[in-house]
Structure formats: C-alpha cells, structure tokens
Amino acid sequence: MDEVTQAVENLKKEWSQAVAQLEVCVAAIESCGKMGKGTEEANSLPRLNGSAQDSLHQLNALQCRLDLLVEQLPTFEEVQSGRATLGSWKEEFQKLRSNLRNANLQANANIKKAAQVERELLLGGGEESTIRRRNLQTKAGMTSAAESITESLRRSRQLMVQEVERSANTLSTFDESTSVLRKAEGEYQGHRSLLTRTRGLLSTMQRQDVLDRITLTIGFLIFSLAVLYVVSRRIGLLALQRKLADAIRSGSISAEDVVAKVQHGPAPANPLTASPIYDEL
Fold first, then answer.
1. Which residues, including other chains, have CB under 8 Å from residue 184's CB and lie 6 or more apart?
2. Are 261 and 248 in contact (CB under 8 A)?
3. Which end of the chain has fewer beta carbons closer than 10 Å to its terminal beta carbon, N or C?
C-alpha cells in the first residue's frame, strides 16, 4: 500500500477514536446536574468542556492533515474518495459542535434546577440541613482543588501534544530533506559520469582534429606540387610555341613541315635541313 494511502487510513482510525471520545464527553455534559448534586456537577462541568474542546481541536487538526494528504493520493478514484471523506468529516464536525452546545445548555438547566433544590434544602431548618451545609462546604473545597489539579494536568497534556506534533513535523521535514539530498546525490553521480564521457569524447575529437589538420596539410602540399608541375609544363609548351611561331615567321621552317613532323614523327637527319626547331619537335 502506498505511504500516503496508509497515512489516510491511519487518520480515519484517529478520527473515529476522537469522535467516540467527544461523544462520551457530550453525553457526560448533557447528564450533568441530573444526579441532584448541583454544586459538585457544576464544578466538574469545566473539566468536561475542556476534554470536549481538546477533542474538537484534535478533529480540526485531523481535517487539516487529511486536506493536505488528499491531493497526494496516487489515483484519481482515491482522490475523489478522500474529498468525499473530508466533506463528511466537516459536516460531522459541525454536528458535534452543535451537540456540544446543546449539551451545555441542557447541563446549565439541570444544574440550575439542582441548585434550586439544594437551596431549598439548605434554607430548611433542622440538623439535616446543618450537616448538608458542612458536607457541601467540604466537598466544594475538595472539588475545587481537584478541578484545579485537573485543569493543570489538561494544560500540561495539551502542551505535550503540541510538542509531540511539532517534533513529528520536524522529523517529517528532516525525512523530506534527506530524500532531497539523496536525489541530488544521484543526479550528481549521473552528471559526473556524463562529464567523464564528455571529456573522453572531447579528447577523441581533439585527436581527430589534429589528424584532419595533418591530412589537409599533406593534401594541400601535394596539390601545390601538382599545380607547380602543371604550370611548369605549361610554361615550357608556351615557350616552344613561341619558338615555332618565330621560326615560321622567319621562314626557316614552314607550317606544313611542322604538321608533317607531328603526324609522321621525326624525319631522318639531313644536314642541310637540320634546325634546332626540328630537334625540339
């Protein structure tokens, strides 16, 4: 089961327990004054109301916690169910507050009625009235002391509950911080391996760049040598053409002889017609 779902189930159990405790307090408040002991029951009423208020504060805190957890549920159906549960809790909370208010009204009415009966008995004469007055004074003092002690204990308990909740929130914050740090460490490890691979790729690219530069340099040198060779040959042919043109213009050789020389190859050597131009052809 998911952690958030488990937390919601635990909240539901705590809600049921708190509601049951509040209903017991409401029932005790509503019956206050019906025992015929108006003063004693009137003194116990603040203690019962304090317990009821503690239960109401607990229910309100449970609603706030459920409201925070509902949106974190894993599925849409669970989110809808959690919202419906939160709505029913709010309605039940308002109903319980109304019941507590009505119970206090009923308790006040009962206490007033019991106090009236006690007043009538105390105002009556006789030894029984005197004994009752003494008992009431003794019980009132004891009840007042017990109520003050109970109120102190209730306040101490409330402070302890608040400290426990604060400690729980602090531990939850620490857990979240720890999980965030672990995720950050994992991401750092992933980036570290990526940087290592990137560094290796950069080294390979640098070596390849050096090889490319060497290849381009050698190719450029070979191309330059070929160009120089072609240019030198071209310059030699141009010089030969100029010599032939000069020889043709001077009449020492005719164009037909040049064509025949080219087509049939060089003729046998003739000392009479020997010329440097023929030798070059």
1. none
2. no
3. N
Q: What is the pLDDT of residues 221-245, one digit of tens each?
A: 999 889 888 887 777 777 777 777 7
Residue-wise pLDDT tens digits, 72-126: 888 888 888 888 998 999 999 999 989 989 988 888 887 777 766 666 655 555 4
CA distance 29 to 104: 6
Predicted pLDDT of residue 184: 83
The string over 242-271, giving b where at least 16 C-beta atoms fall within 10 Å of a residue's C-beta and e elsewhere, is: eebeebeeeeebeeebbeeeeeeeeeeeee
Which pTM value belongs to this model?
A: 0.45
